Amino acid sequence: MTVADPESESLNDLLGESGLETLDNSQIAEFEMYLELILKWNSRFNLTAIRDREGILRRHFVECTACARFLPSGVRTLLDFGSGAGFPGIPIAICRPEIKVTLAESQAKKAGFLHEVVRTLGVDAKVFVGRAESIGSCFDCVTLRAVDQMSNAVAAAIPLVASGGALVAMTTEGSLAQIMGKAGESVHWGVPRQIAGSSQGVLLSGFRETVPRGTVLPNVPRGT
Q1: pTM beyond 0.85
Q2: In sequence order, what E strands does the chain have?
Q3: Alpha carbon 141 to chain centroid distance?
Q4: Does the pLDDT of residue 15 top 90, yes or no?
Q5: 168: helix, coil or strand?
Q6: Domain count, the chain
Q7: If you average pLDDT over every residue of the chain, what do you get?
Q8: Domain hosting residue 129, numbered range
């Protein structure tokens, strides 16, 4: 097991700096196990370009925890579209245990990693091996982060969102217009907000189709 630098900041330190609620001891333990698995598997094949402990905590764990905190309280089922190394699906499963998470990943090696994470952590999540578009189910919420051709992926994800359900994309400001354009009028978008803990990332969320007039979309917690 990798030994953390005693002078490095903990995940709760970083969450506090970003203005986010800290995690309890059991959640921190799950994130530590997750981190160790990422570092171990990253030495064999490319799970994430960020390979150091501090970078994974700051770029992946804090941002994905912010996303988990943001999700509406009524979400019970969630699809992580193109999950990759499990972002943001695994942090959501840790932070929001009431949500049943499905991790969709088409690459066999990454899917194998996700199976190992779910087994080791014991979180309420399952892995769908294949393209998310072929899953044949709808979910209360669909999330996307760092997927190829984000605007096309968002368009492909819309049919997987239940009527009135939420679509959440972790992206950048430069991609917003293209994403919204691809989605057309089938999604009622909220105001994009900076992701807590991120200097460039924004979280774009919307509801599919049946949104009662006057519904107010939730905002992403800011780091300030």
Answers
A1: yes
A2: 77-81, 100-105, 125-129, 139-145, 161-172, 187-189, 193-194, 201-208
A3: 11
A4: yes
A5: strand
A6: 1
A7: 88
A8: 11-208
Residue length, the chain? 224
Taking residue 51's Cβ as centre, other Cβ atoms within 10 Å add up to: 13
In the chain, the amino acid numbered 187 is V
Does 150 have pLDDT greater than 70?
yes
Residue 84: inside a domain, yes or no? yes
Q: Answer whether residue 4 is part of any domain.
A: no
Q: Dig out the tokens for 51 from the structure.
A: 């390979």
Which pair of tokens denotes residue 215? 């519904």
Cβ contact 218:205 at 8 Å? yes
> What residues contact residue 47 under an 8 Å CB cut-off, 6+ apart?
38, 41, 84, 85, 110, 113
CATH number at residue 177: 3.40.50.150
Residue 65 corresponds to which tokens in the numbers above? 């925890």
Query: Which pLDDT does position 210 carry in this prediction?
Result: 62
Residue type, 91: P
Which amino acid, one-letter code, is at 177? Answer: A
pLDDT in tens, 185-215: 889 999 999 887 677 789 999 999 764 444 4
Residue with tokens 């968002």, as numbered in its chain = 154
Higher pLDDT, 198 or 72: 72
5 domain-assigned = no
